[in-house]
Design goal:
Length: about 300
């Protein structure tokens, strides 16, 4: 299975025209792993990852998202089990956390008989591009604030949680209170504050990858970055409430009353929210690479 996976990657990339079979490395795999389905009335999702251990409990779709580094909208699957998948695994010496997604693919293949293929499918998406007048945000230098002491407001009784999680893309720290979440990575720092009408993003440093992820979650739509902007930027952005919470109707009500409000595309997406940044959202029908799950067992094989 490892050699077949590598060979397919060579064909797709077009860069491994003559690799002898004995020279091909096997796909990354956990040293040992326990997999079980978790059911019950009080299901608890977990996400703990260190340099040597992976302990996660998530629905199968979320496991697939992590394994293929794909958004859920780019996964085409059969009906998946309702139970959570609990994985407790050891990362082998000499391997890194960045290889965990590939290790998850190997594990799913071994325990769930996973068979997949990739293909391009036309999909409706929003493309994020730079506006005609150019961007209106300031590029700043990336800084690693993962270990910075942010402290708490003096005299505040507000409960704050501070979590440090190792992910395949690097360490992510989140500092969360009742109405605000601060996200810190090795290069980015931004906070999202809830407001009566939605939320406000205050980005000290944020890249376009983080921005399109937030926009996609907020709009409930696939958002593709085509800005060509590779740095991190400082800006403030106001977002309406997520359409998935059915609160974007406030935008429609403002428009219906003649009051100023964001333009809303079909499907309820306020496409003008990014114009203050010198950016633009354009509705497109694009060929998007998706991962198609051809086969997956509903229960894992024995550990």
């Amino acid at each position: 299975m490892g050699r077949a996976t590598v060979a397919l990657g060579c064909v797709v990339a077009g860069i491994c025209s003559a690799v002898a079979p004995f020279a091909q490395s096997q796909a990354p795999a956990f040293e040992v792993a326990s997999v079980r389905l978790v059911t019950g009335d009080t299901l608890q999702m977990t996400n703990q990852m260190t340099d040597r251990r992976v302990d996660i409990t998530y629905p199968m779709r979320e496991i697939l998202v992590r394994a293929f580094r794909m958004s859920s909208r780019r996964l085409v699957t059969p009906e998946l089990p309702d139970a959570l998948v609990d994985i407790q695994a050891t990362i082998p010496a000499g391997s890194t956390v960045s290889q965990v997604p590939e290790m998850l693919q190997t594990l799913l293949t071994e325990r769930f008989g996973l068979v997949t293929h990739r293909e391009l499918r036309p999909m409706d998406a929003f493309e994020l591009v730079v506006g005609a007048d150019g961007m209106k945000i300031r590029e700043v230098e990336p800084v690693n604030d993962l270990r910075k002491d942010f402290g708490t407001r003096e005299g505040s009784n507000e409960q704050v949680t501070d979590r440090l999680i190792a992910t395949a893309e690097g360490t992510v720290r989140t500092i969360a209170s009742a109405n605000k979440v601060v996200t810190i990575t090795s290069r980015a720092l931004y906070e999202r504050t809830s407001t009566p009408s939605g939320s406000v993003i205050n980005a000290t440093r944020m890249g376009m990858a983080e921005l399109v992820e937030i926009l996609g979650m907020n709009f409930g739509q696939l958002v593709i970055d085509n800005t060509g902007l590779k740095g991190v930027y400082q800006f403030t952005l106001e977002l309406p409430r997520s359409p998935t919470e059915q609160r974007v109707r406030e935008a429609f009500e403002r428009i219906a009353s003649g009051a100023p409000g964001p333009s809303v595309a079909p499907g309820g997406v306020p496409v003008r929210v990014v114009e203050t940044l010198g950016l633009k959202l354009e509705k497109r029908r694009l060929p998007i690479e998706v991962v198609v799950v051809d086969k997956i067992l509903r229960a894992p094989r024995e550990n």
